Amino acid sequence: MTGALDGLRILDLSRILAGPTATQLLGDFGADIIKVERPGLGDETRAWGPPFVEGADGPTQESAYYLCANRNKRSIAVDIATPEGAQVVRELLATCDVLIENFKPGGLDKYGLSYSDLKDQFPQLVYCSISGFGQTGPNREKPGYDLLAQAYGGIMSLTGNPEGEPMKVAVGIADVMTGMYASNAILAALRHRDKTGEGQHIDIALVDCQIAWLINEGTNFLTSQNVPKRRGNQHPNIVPYQVFQMADGHAVVAVGNDTQFQRFCTLIGRDELSADPQYATNAARLANRDALIETLTETLATLERDWLITGMEANKIPGGPINRLDDVFATDQVAARDMKISVPHPSAATGKVDLIGNPVKFSKTPVTYRRAPPTCGADTDDILAELQTAKNE
């Protein structure tokens, strides 16, 4: 069965995480992704370990970080800094629908591979540029890294304990979300291309994307002009919606409305709280957050975690455990949803590597895992042979 994007070909000049996340997603949906890498070096993340794939003779040069965003791709080793390498890219573009890159703004000009260099020769090309601050603006020349985007874009000011230091999200979420925006934008541009025959340039910045997914906290500020503060695991607009210490561990309580709060108070034997006008409505609970949380903290500290979670499930109150990753990947839910997958890999001593599955479930064109993350330049000969065949036709 073919994927939704079968027949689409993407030339991927990106590396690290944002661009590779976008192209891996499109590859999962069926697109043919040609990853262009520097000969002998490849994507920088190949060296971002340990852990590395364990080979027959010890660790290989394939890091887990690289594996996370590069399946369903073919790798060609080409030095685009040479005239010959740049020419290979141009020749490949004759067979491609999309080019994605994450060089600094203007970084591809010297190789003749910028959008302005290519748009007349390839008028249907969708060209996606990812950078830290975008192609315009006073900060366009500044480097773009996930940590810098999280800091500049405000999310770190909202994350962490109220009395602690500003905290980044544990994974490269600014990069990942930029990849998501990029893949979405590429599909929209392809829709336009298919209707009009016109390609276009897509300009996506990590910082712009970071600001965009401030979501409710960003809009809270724009509406009130009150600068939000760090609340740890608490929610700015819902109470109680946080982590609580139980007698034997931690649990999440995520009460989303007044009816759920009433059932929650009944469950823990504190009906008087939901009957109290200070706590009866979410707005009242927000106004009296500190007093309510102090009371709930004292009560929940005497109760067992599993008892509370079972009771919340039975009473349709949102909540649950806080799983470690070994717990996560051992759950029957992960198995049922195919969120842990294994794909053959030539460098692995076991012959395969384990990866995180794609969360999208199509009814007609299911996601496929056709290729493991490639070793650097593994497909160079095949891709060049295909190119020669195409030139001869």
Explain the overall architecture.
Helix 1 crosses helix 7 (173-196) and helix 7 (173-196) packs across helix 8. The chain has helices at 18-28, 64-67, 83-93, 115-118, 146-152, 155-158, 173-196, 206-212, 215-224, 258-267, 271-275, 282-287, 289-300, 305-314, 325-328, 332-336, 380-392, and strands at residues 9-13, 32-37, 52-55, 58-63, 73-77, 98-101, 126-131, 200-205, 241-246, 249-254, 319-321, 340-344, 352-356. It has two domains: 9-213 and 332-392, 3-Layer(aba) Sandwich (Rossmann fold); 241-326, 2-Layer Sandwich (formyl-coa transferase, domain 3). Strand 6 (98-101), helix 4 (115-118) and strand 7 form a beta-alpha-beta unit. With 393 residues, it is of the alpha/beta class. The chain has a six-stranded parallel sheet, sandwiched between helices.
Keyphrases for this structure?
6-stranded parallel sheet, 37% helix, elongated, Rossmann fold, single chain, 3-stranded antiparallel sheet, 393 residues, 17% strand, formyl-coa transferase, domain 3
User: Helicity level, as a percent range?
Assistant: 25-40%
Quote the average pLDDT.
96
CATH class of the largest domain, anyone?
Alpha Beta
Structural class: alpha/beta
Counted beta strands: 13
Order of helices and strands: EHEEEHEHEHEHHHEHHEEHHHHHEHHEEH
Indicate the topology.
Layout: E1 9-13, H1 18-28, E2 32-37, E3 52-55, E4 58-63, H2 64-67, E5 73-77, H3 83-93, E6 98-101, H4 115-118, E7 126-131, H5 146-152, H6 155-158, H7 173-196, E8 200-205, H8 206-212, H9 215-224, E9 241-246, E10 249-254, H10 258-267, H11 271-275, H12 282-287, H13 289-300, H14 305-314, E11 319-321, H15 325-328, H16 332-336, E12 340-344, E13 352-356, H17 380-392
Parallel strand pairs: 1-2, 1-6, 2-5, 6-7, 7-8
Antiparallel strand pairs: 3-4, 9-10, 10-11, 12-13
Helix pairs in contact: 1-7, 7-8
